[in-house]
Amino acid sequence: MSQTVLAEDGSILRNFADENGVWRFPVTLDEVSRNYLEALITYEDQYFYHHPGVNVFALTRATWQWISTGDIVSGGSTLTMQVARIRYPEPRTVWGKLKEIVRALQLEWHFSKADILTYYLNHAPFGGTYEGIQAASLGYFGHKVKQLTDAQAALLAVLPQAPSYYRPDRHNERAQQARNKLMRRLVTLEEWSTERLNDALIEDIPTITKQDYQSAPLLARRLVTQSTAPQIKTFIHSQWQGQISNLLRNYVHGIGQKVSAAALVVENQTGKVKVYAGSADFNDSSRFAYVDMVQATRSPGSTLKPFIYGIALDEGLIHSESLLMDVPLKFGDYQPDNFNGGVSGPVSVTHALQKSLNIPAVQVLEQLKPIYFFLKMQKAGIELKLPIGAKPNLAVALGGVGSDLEDLVYAYTSLGNKGQARHLRFSPTDPQSQQPLLSEGAAWVIRKILLDNPDSVSGLAVKTGTSYGFRDAWAIGVSQHYTLGVWIGRPDGVPMPGHYGQVTAVPLLNNIYQRLNDQRPAPQMPDSVSKVDICWPQGDMVKKDCEESHSAYILDGTIPKTWYNTASLQQPFNQSEFQFWQANDSKLRVNISCQIEAKRQKVTVWPAPLDNWLTPEQHRSSRIPSWDSRCETTGNIIRQSAVRIHGLTDQDAFQLPKQQNRNIRISAEGGEAPFYWFLNGVLLPEQQRKATLKDLKSGNYQLTLIDQAGSRDQVEFSVLLY
């Protein structure tokens, strides 16, 4: 059976022929124009509503003319007899005609005139592969039968009598003569006026068939594979769909060859899909036109970061201004870099999310645990795809997982729907459902952060993403009523250097947003969220001696304290206050066992990995006094003075064999554990007095050592492999 996919307003998105290539689209009497029914009844069967299926007088006349002349001069078949012939084909013989008459009488006995006429309208042949008046109207004129002009109605009324002979796209002159003959007959029978005839005669006969409808073609194909219904209704906004499809087509031509794009627009409150563009140009096979990039699995880049921060908010791990470390950090054997290659030092959650910084996002995911984040997303119905046998790891934060535009847009609807992710609905038969992803408060905070981003368009909370190697450019936005998502790239996975989310996908997203004319009021802050002033570096609420104040959104009154290292290196004494004994006379640091008068002191310290990115006044060495030379440790009598690197001296040069272990053993003299070793700015996992520089390559190196008190030493050396 032929199938038609319809937009929300009833307009046709796409037609599909049946398994035999025949186009037939169901239509009811109410959907057929009055002028066509008028022409049809007048031409085919004037007494249709009065005879019992057979017009005895017409049949007798036709039979006598045939016997007298040996030729068929006029037809005697009624519409009911034609329906019998369509339904039960018989040879054109006397016996076949008799069987046709009997079946026509049976049809009239069992069915109403409306039923018989409706069957004819849906099954009569109209030339080529068109069966039924709706298919013919769409194929020859490009619009539904309800919109037929008088001339078009007359042409379609005569066409079934000899569909191949009168087929207008092949035999234009014959079709015109038959059409005009019928129209003049309508005037003779006083059904039409002369003026109406003259107006209709001006109209040309179509010389070519219309192109098949191709709006939302990939969505239409998707839906017909899931349903056998002759008509499939969708929620597609036909005007937006056309505008945005044209926008995508023109946009990718300015990027490069073989580049495609996809776009979705979804209502936040209902999940109704208003726009579905699976490829940039359905008629351009060079751009992989038939590959639906709405469903294609790709790397999501940074688009998952809002949910890492949102779930961490719900878990009480952070608030909007939590202090994070955008510095070179190593998480076990994983060392992420920022997209731009630089670092910012101390940053807030808000700044990290707005600038899409990688290292802070990994820091939060490490505290949250990758497996917990993965399962939380999975429980909400968001499928993140991993290689067979692989487990979620920290790379998930930067796109080290598979996803698709459909799932991402689904997830982002939670930011516009009080934390509830709305399942996408393509047609009225799809059930309404939603899954909790974030709390209402967390969803509001994340959306507020994105809305306040200076790089975003007013009223649209935008997050971008770029996959490794510039293969995918993403932009997803949440407005008052809609969630919008776009993907740009090459479906074959070839990189597009220089194209990334902010510069390539965001302009397209903004262009789509402008066409929606959506309202732009700010979402109301829920009761679970409050705004307080907090202090850096501690993370506590502001007190009289606050060093650096930040205005933060907190959830359920929870104010988590600052993390002072990566999760794997955190220790109980990594706190914001450092306590020590200070000699009364020298003001230097002493042990409690020293026989020197001293007082217990405490100072505020920043996380040690940030030390190289703080002002001199914020360094630990500026706040914690060095050791008093009068105090010595027991046992090995090592003076507790400034820390020093042992095993390397400045400007050392090493020649190491390529085939052997390329390691250098080092240690710290003096200072106080834990020790922070930085190799070329990257924090090493070792925090003990002894450490090993492993797997060195040829090049220049800078090694920095900082102890708990902020005392530091630094050397530069080089390595040459042979």
TrEMBL record:
Penicillin-binding C-terminal domain ranges (all copies): 641-717
Catalytic activity: [GlcNAc-(1->4)-Mur2Ac(oyl-L-Ala-gamma-D-Glu-L-Lys-D-Ala-D-Ala)](n)-di-trans,octa-cis-undecaprenyl diphosphate + beta-D-GlcNAc-(1->4)-Mur2Ac(oyl-L-Ala-gamma-D-Glu-L-Lys-D-Ala-D-Ala)-di-trans,octa-cis-undecaprenyl diphosphate = [GlcNAc-(1->4)-Mur2Ac(oyl-L-Ala-gamma-D-Glu-L-Lys-D-Ala-D-Ala)](n+1)-di-trans,octa-cis-undecaprenyl diphosphate + di-trans,octa-cis-undecaprenyl diphosphate + H(+)
EC number: 2.4.99.28
Domain of life per record: Bacteria
Pfam families according to UniProt: BiPBP_C, Transgly, Transpeptidase
UniProtKB keywords: Carboxypeptidase, Glycosyltransferase, Hydrolase, Multifunctional enzyme, Protease, Transferase
Broad enzyme group: transferase
Metabolic or biological pathway, per its Swiss-Prot or TrEMBL entry: Cell wall biogenesis; peptidoglycan biosynthesis
Protease among keywords: yes
Residue span(s) of domain Penicillin-binding protein transpeptidase: 262-391
Entries under Gene3D superfamilies matching the protein: Biosynthetic peptidoglycan transglycosylase-like, DD-peptidase/beta-lactamase superfamily
Residue span, Glycosyl transferase family domain: 12-186
InterPro entries: Beta-lactam/transpept-like, Glyco_trans_51, Glycosyltr_51/Transpeptidase, Lysozyme-like_dom_sf, PBP_1c, PBP_C, PBP_transglycosylase, PCN-bd_Tpept
Family to which the UniProt record says this protein belongs: In the N-terminal section; belongs to the glycosyltransferase 51 family. In the C-terminal section; belongs to the transpeptidase family.
NCBIfam families attached to this UniProt entry: PBP_1c
Designated name of the protein: peptidoglycan glycosyltransferase
Native organism: Marinomonas foliarum
